[in-house]
Amino acid sequence: MLRITFSLMLFCFCLHLVGCQSNQKVEKDNKSKQYLMVLGIAQDAGFPHIDNPHEWENYKKGITKKELATSLGLVDLASKQKYLFEATPDMPLQLHNLESEHLKTNRLIDGVFLTHAHIGHYTGLMHFGREAMGAKKIPVFAMPKMKIFLEQNGPWSQLVSLKNIEIFPTENESLVELTPNLNVTPFLVPHRDEFSETVGYKINSPAKSALFIPDINKWKLWEKDIVEEVKKVDYAFLDATFLKNGEIPRDMSEVPHPFIEETIALFKSESESIKSKIIFIHFNHSNQAMNRDNSDRKLLEKEGFHFAEEGAIFPM
Ligand SMILES: [Zn+2]
Ligand SMILES: [Zn+2]
């Protein structure tokens, strides 16, 4: 009995660690040679949101803090490589945080993975251009339609012609090897694909694996079963744009996402250890669960679900 209790305590402690590593510098020991970190948690438009005086006044009074658009960093301290998932409008600060808090080398970034052509996910590329960094051949991993979109539409096409970025084509379910111990696989997901297809990513090491799906239409429209996919990985960063129906004053079928309340319903009969793999991310400004004091969020955290926070670290 004592042993069971101790194991349980250890398990809870480990869960606690995963959720509470915000803003901690990583111990540069063998256990944390490679890891993911959260560089932003908000939906494309960030928080506070344009044309929302209430949110901006609360921010100016220091009642709330600014939340950067959703992005993950991936670092391998052994091979001294670092990768970025999403080029958000907040990318300059996110790259600075990645460099100053995690890994500084003679390269600002070793590669950028894009999910799709919505504003929060690729427009940060502009900072690599002539008006800003004037970067040289930053590797950008992009799916076929995304690649064509960047190559054939200004101002992005200038990044390609001036060789500020170099596009590495990726394919659905085709693995990209980054280091002998890290690889990334894009997979198509249903979304409002006006300008490009949309992908999620699976990030693998020999020890751990992670899913990153910041934007997707309703789960039932995906050919895969999200519950089964979550079971296969250690971490699942999932679309948390909205908490529930009715939270924005427009027809929410125009912007379909799985509501958090729909996602948790799918996991209702799963164990706490399965639920605890889920880290909600990509919060619209209207989503009250972005606030750590929110009562709905606290209840979900008690069930095991996690909510992404900038600075949180996940060993890979
Ligand atoms: Zn988005
Ligand atoms: Zn989108």
Could you list some keywords that capture this structure?
316 residues, alpha/beta, Metallo-beta-lactamase, Chain A, seven-stranded mixed β-sheet, globular, disordered N terminus, binds zinc ion
What would your notes on this structure say?
This protein is an alpha/beta fold and 316 residues long. The chain has a single domain (3-315), classed as 4-Layer Sandwich (Metallo-beta-lactamase, Chain A). 26% of the residues lie in helices and 21% in strands. The protein contains ten helices and 14 strands. A hairpin with a 4-residue loop joins strand 9 (199-204) and strand 10. It binds zinc ion (ZN) (2 copies). One zinc ion binds next to loops. One zinc ion binds next to helix 4.
Helix content: 25-40%
Write the element-wise H/E pattern from the N-terminal end onward.
Answer: HEHEEHEHEHHEEEEEHEHHEHEE
CATH architecture: 4-Layer Sandwich
Helical run tally: 10
Ligands in the model, by name, code or SMILES, are:
zinc ion
CATH class: Alpha Beta
- Write down the Rg: 19 Å
The SS-based structural class is: alpha/beta
Q: What sort of overall outline do the alpha carbons produce when their principal axes are compared?
A: globular
User: What is the CA–CA distance across the termini?
Assistant: 32 Å
The CATH topology assignment is Metallo-beta-lactamase, Chain A
* CATH homologous superfamily title: Ribonuclease Z/Hydroxyacylglutathione hydrolase-like
Strand order, sheet with most strands: 6-5-4-3-2-1-14
Number of strands: 14
Average of pLDDT: 92
* Integer tally of domains: 1
